[in-house]
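Hi W.,

Here's what went into the run:
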Amino acid sequence: MKAAVVGASGYVGGELLRLLLRHPRVESLQAVSARAAGEPVARVHPNLRKSTALAFDPPEALRPSDVLFAAVPHGESAPRMAEWMASARRVIDLGADFRLRAADRYPEYYGFEHPRPELLAGAVYGLPELHRAALASAPVVAGPGCMAAASILALAPLARAGVIDPEHVVVDTKTGSSASGAEPGPAGAHAERSGAMRLYSPAGHRHTAEIEQETGCRVAMSCHGVEAVRGVLATCHAYVRAPVTEKELWRIYRAAYADEPFVRLVHEASGVHRVPEPKILSGTNYCDIGFAADPHAGRVVAVAALDNLGKGAAGNAVQCWNAAEGFPETLGLEFPGLHPI
Amino acid sequence: MKAAVVGASGYVGGELLRLLLRHPRVESLQAVSARAAGEPVARVHPNLRKSTALAFDPPEALRPSDVLFAAVPHGESAPRMAEWMASARRVIDLGADFRLRAADRYPEYYGFEHPRPELLAGAVYGLPELHRAALASAPVVAGPGCMAAASILALAPLARAGVIDPEHVVVDTKTGSSASGAEPGPAGAHAERSGAMRLYSPAGHRHTAEIEQETGCRVAMSCHGVEAVRGVLATCHAYVRAPVTEKELWRIYRAAYADEPFVRLVHEASGVHRVPEPKILSGTNYCDIGFAADPHAGRVVAVAALDNLGKGAAGNAVQCWNAAEGFPETLGLEFPGLHPI
Amino acid sequence: MKAAVVGASGYVGGELLRLLLRHPRVESLQAVSARAAGEPVARVHPNLRKSTALAFDPPEALRPSDVLFAAVPHGESAPRMAEWMASARRVIDLGADFRLRAADRYPEYYGFEHPRPELLAGAVYGLPELHRAALASAPVVAGPGCMAAASILALAPLARAGVIDPEHVVVDTKTGSSASGAEPGPAGAHAERSGAMRLYSPAGHRHTAEIEQETGCRVAMSCHGVEAVRGVLATCHAYVRAPVTEKELWRIYRAAYADEPFVRLVHEASGVHRVPEPKILSGTNYCDIGFAADPHAGRVVAVAALDNLGKGAAGNAVQCWNAAEGFPETLGLEFPGLHPI
Amino acid sequence: MKAAVVGASGYVGGELLRLLLRHPRVESLQAVSARAAGEPVARVHPNLRKSTALAFDPPEALRPSDVLFAAVPHGESAPRMAEWMASARRVIDLGADFRLRAADRYPEYYGFEHPRPELLAGAVYGLPELHRAALASAPVVAGPGCMAAASILALAPLARAGVIDPEHVVVDTKTGSSASGAEPGPAGAHAERSGAMRLYSPAGHRHTAEIEQETGCRVAMSCHGVEAVRGVLATCHAYVRAPVTEKELWRIYRAAYADEPFVRLVHEASGVHRVPEPKILSGTNYCDIGFAADPHAGRVVAVAALDNLGKGAAGNAVQCWNAAEGFPETLGLEFPGLHPI
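Here's what came out:
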């Protein structure tokens, strides 16, 4: 099949290229970037040296494709979607422009009036674990935000099982520096970010809207930037309606994810890696989920770890494509991750 | 005055020595360590090279002093307290053995029956911001846990003001690697800790008991180890009884801390350092506090940052001593911290 | 084919398992570890969760195999080699016991008398780039040290071309924390290693002997531990016999490595990644090589980067096996690495 | 006395402010910055919150002073020096414009023709350990480059003692991210710099000229950027004229530095901190020096560690001022550093 990546010079774009270059069903691949047009891909993404001779094409040279992955800044997908839908049989958008079904949340969370609200109903929120069946026929798939993906995968089973109080859910996330993209400002400078524990968004984070849409909970979200490059950890503190045991939690999560190829339940009694840890997920498409009951406080702690460029962006997008096309869902996503790293 | 540090070869002990060596009121200083007895202090604490010719004495060589600082593992202070009280006019214990007033919480949180429960009533919880007046006459001062100190300083003003629901307070802490001491196990190895976001205690953390004692709230606490060496960040998510504005929060925190020499309110509109950030506090005795209202979720976010060896341990202990003796409270604690670091 | 990994619970052992589990020619795999016998592999190597149900076998349960990879401490291979050679058609030893052809260098560099000196002549130094032809018939392949591999690949072409003064070669290496293995001592604790630039071996490093053996140069080697987990950078400063231009250097390195699948020459005029950088090599089998002429000082700078667990250990061992068996040399080693990471 | 800092909003400028704010002989302090004019100092340098109410003045508001410290980019001091000399009794320039006595090296190493070559002869190279006597009467003091300061302090005693071959000296430096200043480009982004071992200057580094000027050696210099914020480690590999023992090295270094308040010889037989390590020097004015003989290669290894903003810039500048004025040389520079950090 023919695949195109628009916005291919950023971190997410580079990760898409890395995955698609080795994907067994990709016969031809186009890398599109306004900023890097004309440059060899491997100069911008040095990990791809000797893996590809591809160069970036300018946006106006976009060719027809079976699938188009878009990794452009928020607000830039919606105006171009009609063009992309004409060019590609399927569009997987990794930005925020088609994640929210309610058009009126865009002004609130993203600061712009949605230019194509009529397209929102047709877009499917791209988490195969929640919306697998709808992916095949969706003309537009909207890949989740990285922190939203982690939080939703942690919370959805609890919310669906009805064990948590949907009005009192705290989501405290931690994320690495690559989440702010390949062109970070002064706050992303190494001397400022090294060893940081930075509460960069105490309240009102944009991913709140997605998490609420997908879980039905009212979410109190705060986001921190910490020293790491690719990981996201979402610690979800959910007050429970009634006491819940760890055995019940095991049952709930197993029921939700036993057959999922990319969700692993991590809850060990001993060792260094008893709980999900994003660092060992770098480069993978896994979301590792852990949990604990806290009877003292009347709370469940659910925690999810993923690679913000993997299951939080590019890997998940490829999984969505696999699912939509009926390929084996793990195709091209078999890398198990490194330890130590 | 004569000062002694027992447990002087650990990280907290080293920080006490660093501070006391330059404290204008310390005339003689003894460093006691069973493990390092006989060794020069500067071999164990290489930052003190050329600053001191002191060597460690064994515990049996402890000399009478005006103040004894104890930095020994939990459970080791209580059995030795009588001896220390006989040896020193004032004991400042940096472990947990005298932090909790209720003896029955020791088996629950620390796994041991308290051997000297009759001493608990006389011990003062060593946060000058909360218990300054009581310090002068206290024979034993119990320095808080590092994560407890941060959480309490963030939450106490809100709790006292009555704006938060005391039953629904989530404390999500992040801490650097020095918190596990100078002899960490395999989880503290660099290859495992580098870039980590490790939920090492989802529930039941020992500091919960202190925070509840000092704030009157029921606390849902989870602790994470992240990549950093000395910092603690406590993000406190407190549901409110009724909507509260940022202006009210300003008023509450200013009323609590306007005259405190070591609490800074950090809440800026722009720049890299809009909120408290532990990394710039390394080596200082500051606790930086920030806050935000979240009307959407009915929550206040209160965040406190400190150096776990500074305001979270040694620096705070020296501040307690200064307060107890009636010295200027900032004596020997003037280092303002580094940026960048 | 049947493969066995002895010493499978360490970092190198885990990397071997990761690679062999997905190697298309491995039909059965045994993981042997005295320390972890009985434990599931994925508990020790958490990246392999959901990838394998394998458990560690004790050494006495070693089964016959086509290839045995040994990742045990220096000095432990030689006494067991006879047993391994009886058990496996081919042994690839990743320790130092068979790297040096001259038995008398073992007391000097490793502090032990070699117990089986008669086996040294039959062992092949496992760098395919230098000894490819000899690998097929070698009963024992001795994988290089990680810093030696980098230094030799950087220096060998210059030494063979006769452009450098073999008596004045300085090798200044930098390495990440995983090089000291899964059980590091206090120097490997995060609080000590974070941000470190530690000259841990100013002179006399063991890898000196290998580099001298393979390049014919007298080597002045110093090794540093820096903050990173998996990388090695070897900066080689070689005084030249006569002035040499960058054009000549290009020609020398291209002649040596143009057809090598895992050596990349990195020498770009602009961008962030103009020279070899180990971090983007994590998990790969690449050795990236760069160079510069320094006419001012009469020197060539040759620099090589690799992953100390990849091309510096496990990846290179698999490449040796591929070469020895006549498999495509890149089999199972196709992972291109991550950026950023 | 009255002090002024020009270029006060950068990292070096901030460190100067931190030191001068607490310097006992500074009665008034002016912070000058074009970029940050009007802003409170503590917004740019958040470590100074609660330490100062100072705001930045624009350059045109520069007031007369006893000493003016200039921390502006290379090439910007020379054109302004006449103005500064009219305004201040003494100018300490932390840039490169007055470091080299030979005007003709500026085009070669800095790419500009020196606009005021007649001033070069009057400037003193600001390393008190080498030029203490000349400082008092110097109208202009030129603070060394951070990597030059380390390399010169390591090499000068060997060069003066005549034990090393001055034609074969390799200087391999490693430096943290703050060395590239408060406004780094894409290479300084955390995701790129984290865990890096980057040979950013294989040959031709500007500091080469200073090191050669001060040591009389021909220097083969290469510089690396590694993961750390403030440190510099200079590993100097010097071939010897004749074999030299460690005892002789001890004698040479003791003779050079026994009375120096800020040079420490670090050469221990055991422990984690056997050699100089920059991380424990953050915030201090120490230069720690170690050494080893390498009879095998006919080499001495001399290594120096310092804080690139401390002894490598601001701290050293204050020390120069102290020495020039006849103050105790350690005045305002007593901070001993932190461990761990």
